[in-house]
What we know:
The structure is a single chain. This protein is α/β, with parallel strands linked by helices. It has a single domain, classed as Vaccinia Virus protein VP39 (Rossmann fold), CATH 3.40.50. Helices cover 37% and strands 25% of the residues. A seven-stranded mixed sheet has the order 3-2-1-4-5-7-6. Strand 4, helix 5 and strand 5 form a beta-alpha-beta unit.
Amino acid sequence: MATTADGWAPEVYARFAADRAAPFDDLLRLLTPARRGTLLDLGCGTGELTAKAHVALQVSSSLGLDASPSMLKNAAPAPGVVLEQCDITTSLPPRQFDRVVSNSAFNWIADHRTYLPRVLALVAPGGELAVQMPSNTDTPFFRCALEAAAALAPELGGFSYRSPVESPEVYAELFARDARIAQSKVGTWYYPQLHQSVDGLVEFAKGGQLSAYRARLQPADFERFCSSYRQALQRELGEGPVFFAFRRVFLFARLKALA
Ligand SMILES: C[S@@+](CC[C@H](N)C(=O)[O-])C[C@H]1O[C@@H](n2cnc3c(N)ncnc32)[C@H](O)[C@@H]1O
């Protein structure tokens, strides 16, 4: 899969903190508090939002897992919240949690048809799961990155980031077929962005999807990649202001309580 270890740049990610926090806040609103319960955050990044969820959901202990040392090293300590470095594709905790969340991280994890059931197995009876993931493969934001990747194919060893995010219908069916689930919701929400020029879009992408390319390129080659990405975006979107209807898929499931 598209490992991003360790192409993450927390200071670049934080430049659009409000844009990135908005879907997380919407994700949190799907969940009910679990007083004195436990929370797991898969792909927790800097842990800032894990701490926010810990308080909002009134749990007594939270565990955030992330593969990126650079994201984790920016974590501020929060009472009751433990963050660990871990590749969540290969290693998941051997216990269940009352609430499981994942914000903008499943889009880096392959094969959701097998991964989602593995994650559902981590949710305790009566517990809840909420996942949010960007899904923009049919937009210039994504397509132009593939074009830039093709231009730097030798430097990237032929790599390009392909999103593993499935259509909402796939998740709806996975939930419907799981006998442990009492209630589920799958939806698509848009978080529109208007930038003065394509430069704003490039800066936003540098904090997210371009991390997979930063992880694989020398700094000078990554700059060439960004400039090629910028040119392709400019060709498709023209002069600013530039609109991008950022699409995100939301998943929610509540499990049946024990009889
Ligand atoms: C866009 S950031 C989101 C961080 C955080 N959830 C937030 O909303 O601010 C995606 C995170 O997923 C993590 N990630 C990607 N693949 C991962 C993997 N295989 N194992 C653990 N973490 C992973 C990255 O290191 C990164 O911190």
